[in-house]
Here is the input.
Amino acid sequence: MSNPDGSGRVVVIGTVGIDDIETAHASVQGVLGGSATYASLASRCFAPTTMSSVVGHDFPAAHRDLLTERDIDLSGLHTADGLTFRWGGRYAVDMNVRETTFVRLHVLESFDPQVPPHTVAGSFVFLGNTDPSIQLRVLDQVQDPRFVMVDSMDFWIEGDREQVARVFQRCDCVVLNDEEVRLFGGDVNVPRAVRRILELGPQYVVVKRGEFGAALVSDHGWFFAPAYPLDDVVDPTGAGDSFAGAFLGSLAAAGSTHEAVLRRAVVYGSVAASFTVEAFSVDRLAELTRHDIDSRYVEFGDFAAF
Amino acid sequence: MSNPDGSGRVVVIGTVGIDDIETAHASVQGVLGGSATYASLASRCFAPTTMSSVVGHDFPAAHRDLLTERDIDLSGLHTADGLTFRWGGRYAVDMNVRETTFVRLHVLESFDPQVPPHTVAGSFVFLGNTDPSIQLRVLDQVQDPRFVMVDSMDFWIEGDREQVARVFQRCDCVVLNDEEVRLFGGDVNVPRAVRRILELGPQYVVVKRGEFGAALVSDHGWFFAPAYPLDDVVDPTGAGDSFAGAFLGSLAAAGSTHEAVLRRAVVYGSVAASFTVEAFSVDRLAELTRHDIDSRYVEFGDFAAF
Here is the structure.
């Protein structure tokens, strides 16, 4: 439901997990991770945020407390019989190169997300990267969403393209990286591949380009935002999900999905992502204030002024 | 010398050659190429342009006529005893991937560029990618240049880093792609690597990022321009050199090197590069009018507005 001023609520459907992360300079074990975690922690800087996900009985109370203390509504976070999803990643000296060292789905194998009743209607929805059949079941639950943004990845696009297309058809915005856009569009030319996605029905495609920023594409044309130039990228994990969370959160706060608001959302997304990668796991993101965000947002205005 | 309105002349030092180019869709043989060719053809859309280079006695009259008809001053184009420089390149389906199929230096082996006397003083100078000792000899010839921009590549950076650094020290602006910046700076982090270059003396670094556009970096901060989104990239050859030519040409036309003028120069560079890649060789670039440029320049304003 919308508030009287038109602002709304964000519902994030995705993973919550425990990560081991290794870079050329340091490593951490057992840290809080998952797409829903990053997206929710970014979104809550802008708007009330509900998370729908599943964890096991081993999910540390400290991790749960961190989310609760940031006012994230965990009424959709189910605790299942089993162990929490675990993921391990290793980054090369060039942080653009990542290797997945292990994936243990555990309770995610029977993930059947429930959208909490008080968020079913009129929300801003982020469908984190997961099995498209799960994403479809979420879409069956929500009513008159204000805006639905969906993420996917090569594994699903290659394995079940038809199902992924069915999800895309029902969303307002598809967010993918360059390679995923090319893969789904079946074309190495990104502008042409983007058009293939837009032809399915979504009004917008957001192309994530890592250290090169992000582009928003629609019938209105192209909008480009750079990535914030950082001297020290500590851990790129979660950059894309915190981008999506801040993007949707800023839409929900504005209570609008006009082109101008979406362009600003891309910048807010880039700002959130730039803070996320400054520390391991959610260490920086969890401490983020609206003031931090607004300061860096202003800098983006100067990056493109000519 | 400056004109009364402060506008100036561009001098381009680089290669003029005959190219064979192959893409996944088509191929051309014996076409006009070389860094000085692309840079001069872009620069002449903005300001009087003189080219300093060398060709052999086999250089086709049609190629020479094309340059002359575009009002490029060829008083610095020496015809040496021998054959013209030839280069062959093959692009993969993904146009970002290029393989050099052959290089025959021919008359370039004894290239000793002379800056024509009427352009020695007060010009805007582009030192195209070549042996840094040749670039130094050019720098010894010019007097009180208004602005000097230099290009280099991995071959020289890896082979004679000290000499390349000596060139950079004497220039106002270094233009390199991402990988070359990282290589010269000895750091995978581009912002840190850029700072290593700025510390040598140049006031500006332009980072060419291919389909992701270009960045201008100085003590004033970062400026980002996207690449123009094109449905059909026919031949990426010469994109970087036409970027540099338009960049310097627009500075010479403005008669200024203020930050705001340099930012606009990056956009003009991106515009010129986007036209260059729309056809093989210089086919599109040679037909480019100031009106074409200005139309696309306006579109860039909308790409980053939020």
Q: What stands out?
A: The longest strand of chain A covers residues 72-79. Chain A has a mean pLDDT of 96.
